[in-house]
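Task: sequence design from structure.
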């Protein structure tokens, strides 16, 4: 079961979009910045300042979407 990941809009778009940018332009910029084949877009939070994404993979990941090691006992 994968969890959603939240990113700051300014950081993920390298400053090309902020919370006041119209939604259509935000979506175009996000399409250029992230691979939508690997991420499902869930929406915006905090008045459009946070992007909610869900990874489309079945590997073990941490809360930021990075690979994690599965430790054996």
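Answer:
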């Amino acid at each position: 079961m994968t969890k959603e990941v939240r990113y700051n809009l300014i950081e993920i778009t390298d400053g090309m979009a902020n919370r006041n940018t119209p939604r259509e332009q935000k979506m175009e910029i996000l399409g250029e910045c992230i691979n939508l084949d690997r991420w499902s877009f869930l929406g915006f939070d905090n008045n459009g300042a946070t992007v909610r994404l869900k990874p489309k993979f079945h590997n073990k990941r941490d809360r930021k979407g990075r690979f994690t090691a599965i430790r054996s006992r």
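Residues 23-33 form the longest helix (11 residues).
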